[in-house]
Write a structure and sequence with these properties.
Layout lengths: L1 E7 L4 E6 H14 L5 E2 L2 E5 L2 H7 L7 E6 L4 H4 L7 E5 L2 E2 L3 H10 L5 E8 L2 E8 L1 E2 L9
Antiparallel strand pairs: 1-2, 3-10, 4-5, 5-6, 6-7, 6-8, 8-9
């Protein structure tokens, strides 16, 4: 169940915001006057067979970290380029879409456990979630 956000009438295609996301946004707007989304400061993509071979990865699920914002939450937690994030806050991560949703749902200024796969080993690290920075086009 969701809330219609846009409809392409000539194509009959509708876009909706999931009900649980709308409920979370409404709750934050009422309690804080704004929506704060979690941020770890990584760029990642789905783990493909080609990337698994390139980086010598032995796991089937997760996202591979392609870049890290210097001094961002992930960097300070010791996450490195080439690490595979397999769990966020105890939840298995299957793809980048799920990871983005999980990260955004994390409460800023709280610690979260991130499970990574590095060099054939599974490691847990703790990151301090930050508020997602505003996009440059929004800052004027």
């Amino acid at each position: 169940i969701g809330i219609n956000a846009a409809i392409l009438e000539y194509r009959g295609i509708g876009f909706a915001i999931p009900g649980n996301m709308a409920k979370s946004v409404l709750s934050q707007l009422l309690s804080k006057g704004e929506v704060a989304r979690g941020w770890l400061g990584i760029e990642a993509r789905d783990l493909s067979a080609a990337l698994s071979r390139r980086f010598g990865i032995q796991v089937d699920n997760g996202i591979i970290v392609l870049s890290i914002i210097p001094q961002g939450p992930a960097a300070l937690a010791g996450i490195k380029v080439g690490d595979v994030i397999s769990k966020i806050d105890g939840h298995l991560i299957q793809d980048s879409r799920e990871a983005l949703r999980r990260i955004a749902d994390l409460e800023p200024m709280k610690k979260t456990t991130i499970t990574i796969e590095r060099a054939g080993k599974t490691l847990d690290t703790v990151a301090m979630v930050q508020i997602r920075p505003k996009m440059r086009s929004q800052i004027r």
